[in-house]
Amino acid sequence: MPRLDEIMHERTRPLLMGIVNVTGDSFSEGGASSPATAVDRALALLDEGADLLDIGGESTRPGAAVIPADEESLRVVPVLRELRKLRPSAILSVDTRKAGVARAALDCGVDMINDVSMLRFSPDMADVVAASDAALIIAHSRGTPQNMRNSEFHDYGDDPVAAVVAELAGAKAKALAAGVADEKIYVDPDFGFAKTPEQDWEILRRIDELHQLGPVVAGMSRKSFLGNFLEQPDPMQRLGGTVAAALYLADREVEILRVHDVRQVSDALSVWDKLR
User: Which residues form the Pterin-binding domain (predicted)?
Assistant: First the structure.
């Protein structure tokens, strides 16, 4: 079974992490993110070239409500079990802020936990991951999905990139103290989370500065800062912007791109890789 560290070592371009929302109310897919169709969508993304999948059962779009951990587990665990049965070699990540959900996912043999709360929501998240052999994505955020658009969370001083790096470094130190191995920790600037479009653009331009913390995951797919610039309010119409950003990130040697449109981004990266 290929493990994450093996494909990281062998890669010649960014790995593609296919997004599988199991929420029913994704900002990008809306009702098409129904739990009932999640396995089929996950299999399709793997067939389109996804190197790994990120499966999430709680929406973190602006204004989304917190759901109970048991409900979130009921959404994602059956999907994980079915994928382990149908594609035992698939590399799976679970997008959750809750240590209880992470524990249930790890019991299903997932390879990675993606915490979009920067380890703030569940104080024992780092301990849960450290007790496993899984990797951890620490994604930058401030506030909660309910209030992250408040202006108080958008004050990053004169240098938003330096502020994001410093806050991620603090969260990484917490993970290391809990016993998560350094080589298993990834960082994500989390475009759009408590950030203005201007701050997102600055972080994207200087994404390579995050490499001082370790391997970088970038989830810019269909994000609102692309839509604002392109005057595309419909997330489904932001493919062109997503591909352009993906190629820029590939040039900056970002390790993992978290995307919805796996086939199109994979094709673009294949041409980029050929031209190199």
Answer: 14-270
